[in-house]
Amino acid sequence: MNRICKLFNIKHPIIQGGMVWCSGWKLASAVSNAGGLGLIGAGSMHPDILRENITKCRAATDKPFGVNVPLLYPEIDKLMHILVEEDIKIVFTSAGNPKTWTGFLKEKGIKVAHVISNSRFAIKSEEAGVDAIVAEGFEAGGHNGREETTTLCLIPAVRRTTSLPLMAAGGIATAEAIAAAKALGADGVQIGTRFALTEESSAHINFKRLCLNLEEGDTRLLLKKISPTRMVKGKFTSAVEEAEISGASVDELKNLLGKGRAKKGIFEGDLEEGLIEIGQVASLFRKIQTVKEVMQELTQNDFID
Description:
Elements: H1 3-8, E1 14-16, H2 25-33, E2 38-41, H3 47-60, E3 65-70, H4 76-85, E4 90-94, H5 102-107, E5 111-116, H6 119-128, E6 132-136, E7 142-143, H7 151-161, E8 166-169, H8 175-184, E9 188-191, H9 193-196, H10 205-211, E10 219-222, E11 229-232, H11 235-245, H12 250-257, H13 261-267, H14 291-298
């Protein structure tokens, strides 16, 4: 049996990324119901909103689902205790040191996977006691690794450093890409962009339509002085790019970014002033589909057996 399927008790080794402003209970439950593992994206939720999403997700599916937690979350203590109180069994952590919370979660009987962008962090994740690793390449949307290593290079490098169950992420959105991930040494995949553009995603329709009309090269990896972020070309992206070219400082870039920029773009659909995050692979797709339709397409190869 596939190691990812066995670890999470799922039918297909396909994990839905816990994306801010996209990954609410509707998306997570739909992916789980279709045989993958749905993740609620806690990074954009206040603690009470997270608890509400967990309750609704549990009512919408009897299949396993989990929660993605960025470890730099401002109310991390409160959030972690909610996960325990709500009896969450699977947590994916990212954007921080896995040693900080992995022990606490494992003591509560929770399976932990950590998202990394290089082999060094893969080793640290294994030392921290995680159950599995997600290796995310440069192609991915949103926050990205500083090394800018592509998935094609990253997966075999990480596979060489760890024997843990390994999921590939970044630029994976088709059955063919899943087969390629297997060939590189992955046991499963984590998919963000393709699920962000489904009917069940909580992202705004303006965001989905824009991303489904992108061409190759329509995203940029910017904000490298703060946290490398893949963004769609547009008014705000151009302002960031111009600021970086002119040598803007970290403080100047933070002032330009302001607060709530991703919510404005992804959740509220403001394509002028919002920050639009999506992966490079969005340019392959042109229509909004249901999660069920996407999962049917993704499982059309031998990798899912």
